[in-house]
Every structure is written in structure tokens, then in C-alpha cells.
Design brief:
By secondary structure, this protein is α/β, with parallel strands linked by helices. It has five domains: 19-105 and 200-269 and 279-454, Glycosidases (TIM Barrel, Alpha-Beta Barrel), CATH 3.20.20; 113-193, no CATH class; 459-463 and 473-559, Rossmann fold, CATH 3.40.50; 571-599 and 603-667, Immunoglobulin-like, CATH 2.60.40.1180; 704-887, Jelly Rolls, CATH 2.60.120. Helices cover 23% and strands 25% of the residues.
């Protein structure tokens, strides 16, 4: 039996998970201009922080003399980095092109992404002629026609009026429009390059984006770009080769489309092509067939071609399979490794697109690009932000993180150095970096756990592609992104209702159903579905015969009750709060529920697993310790903001809890590692009442003699003498500290009487204050940019040192640490090393603007730095809370 498939293996792996579950980082190489000494330093720093590997991405230059992509200099540096990563035990992945989407100078007009162009107008009765092909200066410089008329359609009446159109065939390269008796409608459709060039391209990588429906174009890119990369870095040094998200804007044509359409659909395309821009029942049929053909061409001529090439080199092919072209959930099946992007555990995200495909097609590991845009702009993200967003991906079925990302930067005399124009900069320039290892160990443990056994999903949400395909394309004011149009087609309240009420779901399309057992999933929802292919109808009938429930709906009204009529919640949480999420994995002899508080409020909830086993254990995700156990009944959890625990159900005897205060549940509410959890019907700790001073009361307090408030401290900034302060203390109130990013030492000395010092004692910094993050565009939050909705009592990390002995770091709720073992009667000293973010330094970074100007002077405008003027929006550093020593009884 494989490791992790039995309870004993689960316990062992939980405490010592293998390194392949560590989070990775996208490693941006600007230029690509890199130096070996710095490559070594950055890889070493990543390894030391528990990062498991890198995905190298070659983007726009920031230096005036960057080597070109695929130059001998670049390829030599790439080989060195791969070898050094291997020596450090790091996975090393390669992106098979610069920027996105794939393309470059090797892609001429005939291989470039192309699109349909429509000219619809009224014409008088007079006869006319139109050239069927025209040359309009090829943008690629490769020669040949850049635009070609495909067909001309003629109908009576005015534009917009219903009409029967007839196609005019070209004769000797010319379309001849005969004379008529009155006004007519003319539709001319032509094919032309989209004109899109590679976005954020490295030096020497400029050029058109390739045609993702053409195997010839795909092979040209593999020959010109991928082959040199794999010649420089042998396969035994590579974890996977990678394709980023599909952003081939407007590409809805390929030169072979007419013959491929007729071969696949059984009737000619050109006589009906005009129906793409005409509403009606017949048009819907044409549009379904048209976009299904585009999806198939993308799958077979791009994804499968790249996968087969990678297999020939002995490496797996990983892809973010969503966007344009219109990739379906099942399109992932043509790749080896599936990847998503975007947080939102109750939504239909690109992350859920990927994890659903992995579940349907049996992949044990599925990754996501994580922390894209996190707390924009760069350097504002906190470790708590990273933890909170990671939770959202875990709840969506992800078990491998690819952090976005780590910007390579040379050592500089001024400013912060090099960083990406958008997204977080998650490297050791962040003052909070010394605590990064705690986050990576936490995520490593959870990712490993979420690979064990098999996922439990009770509900399938059917993607009605035959209802969505007619809405695709700019011809009807839609996009070519099947994920985006699916998200708009399905009422968002449907997935939210499923998740908030204790079930999980996967997305399925018609092909995915062909590989699923109709009896395996209790419920399938058909949202806003009117057209179902014949094969899917047969599957649904088999599902019904097997006792499954088929729910047709356009909204979430009554949905919860209808699901519950078939199957109860997998993990019921009450009272329902909307921010407690769970994900379930099943082993042969155990069930695992990861339970996460995704919100800013402390929650005490009862949980009731549907699947009964004789015993349960509750595991701390921070320490790995078993912190509660019991048999039968509900399990009560006291979860702090953005805190998680694991419930393990099994049929072995209830284990005895031994060692450490983390098992003393009656007194441990809010202690790191204990989580304030108790089994059965007992509830620990009360709700926690916040006083004006920011001190949180709980059942662990034994009266006024059990608390020592620590309000008076000295503070020492680097290079300065200590100065006395009274908490709360915010660095930015001193104008001289506005741009300070770094670590500051706080120190206090106090007396303890013997009775207090002899018992268990914690230092408690108080609870955070929930905040409304507001609209996504407020406070520097751009687009799909995650940030926690909590003002924390430590900004952002504090290392606690008691009487010269390090006791631990605090960077996430609960901001409580056991320090009793280091205290003694009489005089005691506590030091706090408090680190903020690099946002303050970012606000004063003028060097980056010089770098941008220099880059644009040499290479044109390949990017624009974003939101840097908002670097200090809402930023506060220091200690806004007042810590107390609290006796734990």
C-alpha cells in the first residue's frame, strides 16, 4: 500500500512530509540578464526558506545590455542554475517561451494567430467586384498576404433585417456581386492576423503570437525555442516544462479551418459562416459546431503537440489550460500536469477549472499559480496574506503551490532592485522573510496531506457547452474564453450554496462524463441548461437509474434542500457562518477533513461529519500535534481568523494525548498549536471579549492577578539609540520613519512574583480587528488581488525573546505564545524583533523609475509599473496592540 494510504502512513507523513510537496516559486529573469553569483545566492535563500523549486520565466529587460533569449550566454546561465538547483534539492521547471502567449520572431504571418474580420453594410442595386485576396504589408516581415477575403454573402433588405443570404463564390480571385433590383445587405468576412505580439517579451523574443490551432505553428515554436532550451538543460534536471495562461486575444481562425470543420462536422463551413454574426436557431447550431471545432483544434494541434514533444524528451508538460483559445475543462486531458489560477473557494475560478479536470481524469497532484496580484502593489503582501490566499486554493482542490513570484535582482546601491511590474515580490528583500520558513513548512504539510487518498465531491456542476458556445466571440459581444463565459452563465449563488452548506463540487463537461461512473457521484446539477448532447443524455439516464439526483435549475433557490434530499452535508458546520470551509480526502481506513476559517472573525462552531467512524482526532496544522481526540458526536472547533485544523476519522482506538500543553484543551483557547479545540459537545474558551485596551478575555484568565500588561517599552531602530515608547506604537507617525522597512527591537523589563512565574504563562498580543477591504480597487487592491480583512496586533512579524531565549515567531492569529518556561521570579526581560513589509521602502524607491525609463529607451514599452503611487495606502508598522502576560490555568 503506497505511503499515505493507511492511517499509520498518514501519521508518519504528516509529521515529516516529503520535499516534493513544498511550494515552488515562479522565478522571473529580466532580460534575461542574470549573473551566477546572484543565481546561487537566490537559490540558496529559497532552499533555506523551505521553497521546493523554481519555474523559470524569461521576461522583459531591465538592463540596457541584456543578452538575448536563446543566446549562448543565456543558455549557459540556464544550465548553471539548473545544476545548482539540483545540488540544493530544488525542482527546476522551464517555461517554453518568453512572456505570453508563445510566439516570437520565428513566427511569420502564415503561422501567426488570426481572426475573422466582418464588414456588414448596405449596398445599392449596382453590380460590383471585390478582390478575394489582398496583401496588406505583413506585420511579421515574412511576406505573403496578411488579409484574405473568405466569403461574401448577399441578402435582400437593410442591415439588421432578417434575410436569406446566399454565398458568392470567388472566380479567378475575384468576388463578383451581381446587380439587384433594390437595396441589399452585404457581409464580407475575411481572415487577418490578430496583430498580437508576445506580451512582456525578453530581449530577442519579440514577434507575433503563434496560431494555437495549427500543429505546424506549434512545431515551429518547439523547434526554434523549446529545442534549444532542452539542449541546454538535460531532462534529468527538469521537473516539468510549462505553458502559462492562454491569452491569444481574438484568435478565432486558422487557415485549415474550412477543411477541418467539414471533416469533423460533416458539412461545409463557408456557406453558413455568416451565421456567426446572425442570431437565430440555425445560427446557434453553427456556432456550437464552430467553437467545438476550435476547441478540438487547440487540443490536438497545440496541447497534444507540446505534450508529445515533451514526452519525447522525457519530461512532463504542465499547462494553465484556460482562456483563449476556448479551452474546456476536458482540454486538460491532453497535458501531463494541470494548473489553475485565482482564489475564491466558493466560486467557479480557473483554479477550480484545473482541479476539477484533475479529479475527473485521476491526477493526484494539481497546481495553481498562487498569489498573483497579492495585496498589490509589489512588496505590500504579508505572510498572513499569503496564508489566507493559499487556504482558498486548498479549499478549491489544489495541492501544489507555484508562488507568483520571485523576481531575480542584482544587488543594488539604491532602491529595492528589480521586481515585476505587477504581482507580489515574495523574496528575501521582505523584512518579514525570517518567518517564511514557517509558512512554507505549513503549506508543505497541507499539500502533502491533500494528496493522500482520493477527493470526496458529492456534487457535479455540468458545464452546458452547447448553451455557452453560442455566446462566444466578439460577433455577439462575448469572449473566446470558455471559462469566463461559463462563469457568467452559471449563477454564482449555486457554487456558493454548495460550499457554504457542507458539500464540495467538481465541474464537468460532456467528455469528462464519459470517464466518470454515473453511480459514483450522488448529485449532478444542470444550471441554465437547455441543450444536452445525446451521449450526455444517456449518461444522465444511467445516473438516474443508479439512484443519483439530477437537478435542473437557473438559481440557488431551493438548491440546498434538493441536494439534502439525496445526500446530507459531507461536513456540516453549525452555526453556518459562510466563512468556514472544508475539503475532504478519503483513505481506505481513514477520512481527512481540512477545516479552514477563511474570515477575519474568530469562530466557535460544531462540526458533524456525515461519514461515521468510531474515533476522531484533531491535528494542529501549525505544529502537527494531535490536539484532541474522542469518539462519536459532534466536534467543536474554536478557530481564530485564517486558522485551520485537520479532523481525522478512523476506526482505531482513541489515542491517548501525551505531552505538551497543546493537548490541554480546557485551558488552551487561542494558543499556537492548540487552536482551542475540544471534541464531543464541550466548547472551550468562551467567545473572547475585546476591551478598549485591545486585551482579549477568555476562560483562561484567573482574575486580575493573572494578567501583567506590558505597555512600556524601549524601541531601537537600526543605527539609533533605544528610546522609550508606550504602546500602541506606529512607526509611520514619525515622518523620518515613513520609508523605513526593516526590523526594530522592542525591549521591556518587569518583575514577576513567584506564584505567577512558576505556572504556565503566555504572552498575548490581543485579537486583530476585522476590517472591510472594500472594493477591489480601494487601498491599492487591484483586480483579483487578495488581502486579509484584518488589522493585526503585530505589523507584521515578531520574534519573541524571553530572558535571552528565542521562544518563537508570531505572524498569524492567534497572536499568543507560550513563554512560561523562560520566565522566573523577579526581574525578566522580553525583547521583540518586529519586522514590517517592504512597502515603506517601495514608497521611496526612485531607482525603479530610472530602470523603467532606461528599459523603454532601449527596448520600447514592454511593460508599465503599476500602482507604485499607492505603496503606503493603509500601511502601518510596529505594535498597534498591547501585549499581556497571562497565566494559563
Amino acid at each position: 500500500m503506497p505511503i499515505g494510504q493507511s492511517l499509520d502512513d498518514l501519521r508518519a507523513g504528516w509529521l515529516n512530509p516529503p520535499p516534493d510537496s513544498r511550494p515552488m516559486m515562479r522565478w522571473w529573469w529580466f532580460g534575461p540578464d542574470v549573473e551566477r553569483g546572484e543565481l546561487d545566492r537566490e537559490l540558496t535563500a529559497m532552499a533555506a526558506a523551505g521553497i521546493g523549486g523554481v519555474e523559470v520565466s524569461y521576461v522583459y529587460p531591465l538592463s540596457p545590455d541584456s543578452p538575448e533569449l536563446l543566446s549562448d550566454t543565456f543558455l549557459g546561465q540556464l544550465r548553471y542554475a539548473a545544476e545548482r538547483a539540483n545540488e540544493l534539492g530544488l525542482r527546476f521547471d522551464l517555461t517554453l517561451g518568453s512572456g505570453w502567449s508563445f510566439g516570437g520572431p520565428h513566427i511569420g504571418t502564415e503561422l501567426a494567430a488570426s481572426m475573422l474580420h466582418w464588414d456588414r453594410r448596405e449596398i445599392p442595386p449596382a453590380a460590383a467586384t471585390i478582390p478575394a485576396a489582398s496583401t496588406v504589408g505583413s506585420p511579421s516581415g515574412a511576406g505573403g498576404p496578411s488579409e484574405r477575403v473568405l466569403a461574401c454573402y448577399l441578402g435582400p433588405g437593410s442591415v439588421g433585417e432578417p434575410a436569406d443570404f446566399t454565398i458568392l463564390e470567388a472566380v479567378d480571385g475575384t468576388l463578383r456581386i451581381p446587380a439587384g433590383s433594390g437595396p441589399r445587405q452585404l457581409i464580407i468576412v475575411s481572415a487577418r492576423p490578430t496583430g498580437q505580439v508576445v506580451k512582456r517579451a525578453a530581449a530577442g523574443a519579440d514577434g507575433p503570437v503563434l496560431d494555437h490551432y495549427s500543429a505546424t505553428a506549434a512545431r515551429a515554436h518547439l523547434d526554434h525555442v523549446a529545442e534549444p532550451l532542452l539542449a541546454a538543460v538535460p531532462a534529468d534536471l527538469i521537473g516539468s516544462v510549462f505553458c502559462d495562461s492562454l491569452e491569444v486575444y481574438g484568435a478565432n481562425w486558422t487557415p485549415a479551418m474550412t477543411e477541418e470543420f467539414e471533416r469533423r462536422r460533416g458539412y461545409p463551413l463557408l456557406p453558413r459562416l455568416h451565421q456567426l454574426i446572425i442570431a437565430g436557431e440555425d445560427s446557434d447550431h453553427l456556432r456550437i459546431d464552430y467553437y467545438r471545432t476550435l476547441t478540438e483544434l487547440y487540443e490536438e494541434n497545440f496541447v497534444a503537440v507540446f505534450r508529445d514533444w515533451a514526452a519525447g524528451h522525457g519530461v512532463p508538460f504542465r499547462i494553465q489550460g484556460y482562456g483563449t483559445p476556448p479551452a474546456s475543462v476536458s482540454s486538460y486531458r491532453f497535458a501531463d500536469l494541470y494548473e489553475g489560477e485565482g482564489f475564491g473557494w466558493k466560486e467557479i475560478t480557473q483554479t477550480r477549472w484545473a482541479s476539477s479536470a484533475a479529479h475527473c481524469y485521476g491526477l493526484p497532484v494539481v497546481s495553481s499559480e498562487t498569489w498573483t496580484w497579492v495585496h498589490s502593489p509589489s512588496f505590500r503582501a504579508t505572510l498572513l496574506d499569503l496564508k489566507g490566499e493559499a487556504h482558498e486554493h486548498l479549499l478549491a482542490g489544489i495541492n501544489q503551490f507555484i508562488g507568483h513570484g520571485w523576481p531575480y535582482s542584482p544587488q543594488v546601491d539604491r532602491g529595492l532592485g528589480w521586481y515585476f511590474y505587477a504581482a507580489g515580490a515574495l523574496d528575501d528583500r521582505n523584512p518579514w522573510w525570517p518567518a517564511m520558513g514557517e509558512l512554507t513548512r505549513y503549506l508543505q504539510r497541507l499539500c502533502w496531506l491533500m494528496r493522500q487518498g482520493r477527493p470526496v465531491t458529492d456534487v457535479l456542476i455540468y458545464i452546458p457547452t452547447d448553451d455557452i458556445f453560442p455566446k462566444l466571440g466578439h460577433e455577439v459581444s462575448g469572449s473566446l474564453d470558455l471559462w469566463r463565459e461559463t462563469r457568467g452563465h452559471i449563477d454564482p449563488a449555486i457554487p456558493a450554496a454548495i460550499r457554504e452548506n457542507g458539500w464540495d463540487f467538481d465541474l464537468v463537461d460532456d467528455h469528462a462524463l464519459t470517464v466518470l461512473d454515473p453511480a459514483a457521484v450522488p448529485v449532478i446539477i444542470l444550471p441554465a441548461t437547455s441543450t444536452v448532447p445525446e451521449g450526455t443524455q444517456a449518461w444522465l439516464e444511467n445516473h438516474r437509474r443508479a439512484g443519483g439526483s439530477l437537478i435542473r435549475t437557473r438559481s440557488a433557490d431551493g438548491l440546498v434542500e434538493r441536494i439534502a434530499d439525496t445526500i446530507g452535508p459531507d461536513l456540516q458546520v453549525f452555526p453556518a457562518t459562510g466563512d468556514i470551509g472544508s475539503v475532504h480526502r478519503r483513505l481506505d481506513d481513514a477520512d481527512i477533513h481540512l477545516v479552514i476559517n477563511t474570515g477575519p472573525l474568530r469562530r466557535t462552531v460544531h462540526t458533524a461529519p456525515r461519514d461515521r467512524r468510531t474515533s476522531y482526532e484533531v491535528w494542529s496544522t501549525e505544529t502537527g500535534a494531535v490536539i484532541a481526540s474522542g469518539s462519536g458526536g459532534s466536534i467543536t472547533l474554536d478557530l481564530h481568523p485564517y486558522q485551520s485544523v485537520v479532523i481525522v476519522l478512523h476506526d482505531q482506538p482513541v489515542p491517548a494525548l501525551v505531552g505538551g500543553h497543546g493537548n490541554d484543551l480546557s485551558t488552551n483557547s487561542g494558543i499556537v498549536g492548540g487552536s482551542g479545540i475540544v471534541g464531543g459537545s464541550g466548547i472551550v474558551g468562551g467567545s473572547g471579549i475585546v476591551g478598549g485596551s485591545g486585551i482579549v478575555g477568555s476562560s483562561g484568565i484567573v482574575g486580575s492577578s493573572g494578567i501583567v500588561e506590558l505597555r512600556s517599552w524601549s524601541v531601537q531602530f537600526p543605527g539609533d539609540q533605544p528610546a522609550d515608547v508606550t504602546l500602541p506604537h506606529r512607526w509611520e507617525t514619525d515622518p523620518a520613519r515613513q520609508s523605513f522597512s526593516g526590523t526594530v527591537r522592542y525591549r521591556t523589563t518587569f518583575e514577576l512574583d513567584p506564584s505567577f512565574a512558576s505556572g504556565p504563562v503566555v504572552i498575548d498580543f490581543g485579537a486583530g480587528i476585522p476590517i472591510d477591504a472594500g472594493s477591489l480597487e480601494r487601498d491599492g487592491v487591484r483586480g483579483n488581488s487578495y488581502r486579509v480583512q484584518l488589522t493585526t496586533p503585530i505589523r507584521e512579524v515578531a520574534q519573541v525573546i524571553v530572558n535571552g531565549q528565542p521562544c518563537g515567531m508570531l505572524w498569524a492569529p492567534p497572536y499568543v505564545l507560550d513563554v512560561g518556561g523562560q520566565l522566573h521570579a523577579g526581574a525578566n526581560t522580553i525583547e521583540l524583533l518586529v519586522s514590517n513589509t517592504a512597502a515603506n521602502a517601495l514608497s521611496a524607491d526612485t531607482a525603479i523609475h530610472e530602470l523603467v525609463e532606461q528599459s523603454q529607451e532601449h527596448y520600447g514599452r514592454r511593460f508599465a509599473m503599476q500602482d507604485l503611487d499607492r505603496a503606503l495606502d493603509g500601511v502601518s508598522s510596529g505594535l498597534p496592540g498591547i501585549p499581556v502576560l497571562r497565566a494559563r490555568v
